[in-house]
Design brief:
disordered N terminus; about 350 residues; single chain; alpha+beta; six-stranded antiparallel sheet; disordered C terminus
Length: about 350
């Protein structure tokens, strides 16, 4: 049986799982019957294929969909043939999440889903980015790695003791790439280090920067500072950044990887916590609404925004009633702006 799901952002609590039951021999009839124990539950995921052998003594069901507005949509089918000659696969080789190793965690295919590494997908991303100067790549990291990263953060990450400042410009907890190098766990063998640290280093690497430059068709400036990456936590009711004309951030390509635990859509009108982009200076005076863009906290989404010198950004304080704090990996990649680009944005 095959099941190809076309769903996105489907969580386990939404129901609709493929449940595989155990079985036992009924003493009265001598027949094999299902037990009440679900031995394996498969949550629907976009673009995945699940298959298994259906025999007279195998039992399965699709659990009740509990999401109030979404439907579980899938394509299912059966392949018929003799099963007595099939090769038995030992249970000990059931696939599990791969253990990351030092040999491959510097490569794109270790972290990033195949969806965003194919030539066709990359061409589509380039076309969209050239038109809008921004794009959101949802479900960017491999699911198994993302869940482990979120679990590391949920289990109680050791953030900086003092928030980033000064408070008239910003306040949030962080772990920078330089802090990661000095982290106590960073001295362990690479495969034993937290995935958070390894991802931070990867996003700082030339391999990742070249990939982003290729996606956005941007170029690094001939001179200037290197890209700086940091893990950031905006606590509920406490943290923010302010748009500051006097000390603006260096212009460049903003790369923001959302690290929210929940995959449910963020209610920005109620919880706030979004990153806002606005036009500044004389150009803003000529506009009725200088607000350009808003990026709410996101679950495993990579957001790319080309921010020229006339554009400022700020993170609105997360409301105390929000279900979780804003978490992200933030990277600003320096890019070369030519005179034509500057004139187009005035």
């Amino acid at each position: 049986m095959g099941c190809c799901n076309k769903l996105s952002d489907w969580a386990a609590e939404d129901g609709g799982r493929l449940d595989l039951f155990g079985s036992r021999i009924d003493e009265a009839s001598g027949r094999r019957v299902p037990t009440t124990t679900v031995e394996r539950a498969v949550c629907p995921q976009r673009g995945t294929l699940a298959f298994f052998v259906v025999e007279p003594h195998s039992f399965h069901q699709v659990s009740l969909v509990t999401h109030p507005t979404r439907d579980r949509v899938s394509i299912s089918g059966w392949l018929y043939g003799p099963i007595d000659k099939r090769e038995t696969i030992p249970a000990t080789v059931t696939p599990s999440a791969p253990v990351p190793s030092a040999a491959d965690d510097s490569s794109l295919d270790f972290w990033i889903k195949d969806t965003y590494r194919s030539s066709r997908a990359m061409d589509s991303i380039r076309e969209r980015f050239a038109s809008d100067s921004m794009i959101e790549l949802r479900s960017f990291l491999r699911d198994d790695l993302y869940q482990r990263i979120v679990q590391e953060l949920d289990d109680g990450w050791a953030w900086s003791a003092m928030p980033a400042g000064p408070p008239n410009v910003r306040s949030f907890l962080r772990l920078s790439s330089s802090d990661a190098a000095a982290h106590p766990l960073g001295s362990q063998p690479v495969a034993a280090q937290p995935l958070v640290l390894r991802l931070l280093r990867f996003m700082q690497s030339p391999t990742f920067r070249e990939y982003i430059h290729s996606l956005t068709q941007t170029e690094a400036p001939s001179t200037g500072s290197a890209a700086a990456c940091e893990l950031r936590l905006f606590r509920r009711g406490l943290d923010y950044t302010l748009a500051n004309d006097l000390e603006p951030e260096p212009a460049g390509l903003d790369v923001i990887l959302g690290l929210q635990s929940s995959s449910k859509a963020w209610d920005d009108e109620t919880w706030h916590g979004g990153m806002h982009y606005i036009v500044s200076g004389e150009a803003a005076d000529e506009m009725e609404d200088p607000h350009l863009l808003e990026l709410p906290p996101a679950h495993n989404s990579l957001m790319l925004v080309l921010r020229d010198p006339s554009t400022l950004r700020f993170v609105r304080i997360v409301q105390p009633t929000a279900p979780e704090a804003r978490r992200e990996l933030s990277l600003v990649i320096p890019v070369a702006f030519d005179d034509d680009d500057d004139n187009d944005n005035e």
